[in-house]
Amino acid sequence: MKPNFEEMSKAELKAYVLSHRDDDEAIRVFFGRRNPPDSEATWYGPMCTPEGLPIEENIRIAEEAIRQKVDRDREKSRAKELEAKSVSTIEEGWVNSKESKMTVVTQTEIEQVREQLIKNYPEALPNLDTIQECEGNLEDAAQVIVLEAGEEEVQSDLLEKLSSLCRSVICKEDMKEELPVLIAAITEFLASGSGFPPGLATPIAIFVTKRGMKNFCQSTDSNSNSQ
Prior knowledge:
Elements: H1 10-19, H2 24-32, H3 56-100, H4 107-120, H5 125-133, H6 138-148, H7 158-165, H8 167-170, H9 179-191, H10 201-211, H11 213-226
Helix pairs in contact: 1-2, 4-5, 5-6, 6-10, 9-10
């Protein structure tokens, strides 16, 4: 019993035709599925006469059609490559932008900071808890602290902007690099009328020490000199 060729997939039908080359019905159904089908295909005249002489006009028409198809396929390929590169560039830019705004401290680092704060500045512990709740993401923690302080909107790149605002305190010559001292100094600065919640001092201080205070302050000096 013959299979139902109409219900077979194109791949199944092709495999059947290759193994049953004398089955005219299967071959007819298979070629009827060509894309485009015969009814929509462009047909060209014979390339040679029955005597074997070339028909130059038909050859020219066929060659031109082939050339145009090659050009169309090449343009489609280029368009796909450009689209892929464009998408890749956009995604890469988005990822880099996202990563540039993200400074994360590990659980081990949080516990090390906690030990210092317990001994020297316990007032900052609630803000450290916020950082822990945000899985160490300092930018997210800063935004939570701002929202909990009653602000309705949160600026983007908050820590970058706030650390720049606090440079005069962070980069003092007599400023010790101990984190509790730095947090206390920034807290006092923010509370003196900056308009920002003093609780932000904890993520700001950790953000700066994570980058390295020396590098942070040297970049400040470089920017000042260039201006």
